């Protein structure tokens, strides 16, 4: 049974966007690192794919850096795509929205090659075998001297490290809620937003394993460019 179908629930999507998304630790730094790698790797950035675009925050950042680019924003969740359409309505001429299921290899049918493919907090919902297949499909979609960056939730190396990440997430979310004028206690934030229902959809894999998959597929310059506990930015270049 697929657990990621929880993301078709508008109520859960709203809970995530209003209670979690803005409080993810180092979110802006992760996007900055990813776009820095894109800038270094790509001679031009005219076409970009945002896999698992969610509410469009990553697409928005891409267009701020590359305002003339065309971004194909892809997501499985129609409620998320609707949120992205609202966020990006002033930039809609530069965005192509596409509802597609990354569990199915047909997600990429009809797509032209991209200068860069970027994903944010999406691929960890796929089984590991499918993750690796998807990375191969992404490789085929990238132009020479293009790149793939994955801003991702990855597996901890031990339960102790996982506990450190959960503590960081609780602290970050609690501070964000305080900044938003919300009165929930730290315990309430932890129970409602860190140990929340959609976590059953997470299928986390170690970043080292995923980087090795990318190397075996043919990506070069593969590295984890940023990592704090279970938050990582990794990827590679197709020469």
Automatic annotation (TrEMBL):
State if Ribosomal protein is listed as a keyword: no
Keyword Transmembrane in record: no
Q: Which Gene3D superfamilies match?
A: Vaccinia Virus protein VP39 (3.40.50.150)
Q: Which domain of life is it from?
A: Bacteria
Residue ranges the record marks as coiled coil: none
Transmembrane region(s): none
In terms of InterPro entries, this protein maps to: Methyltransf_25 (IPR041698), SAM-dependent_MTases_sf (IPR029063)
Q: What Pfam family is a match for this entry? A: Methyltransf_25
Domain called Methyltransferase: residue spans: 48-146
Molecular function (GO) terms for this protein are: methyltransferase activity
Single biological process term from Gene Ontology: methylation
The UniProt entry, under CDD domains, shows: AdoMet_MTases (cd02440)
Q: Which keywords belong to this entry?
A: Methyltransferase, Transferase
Q: What is this protein called?
A: Methyltransferase type 12
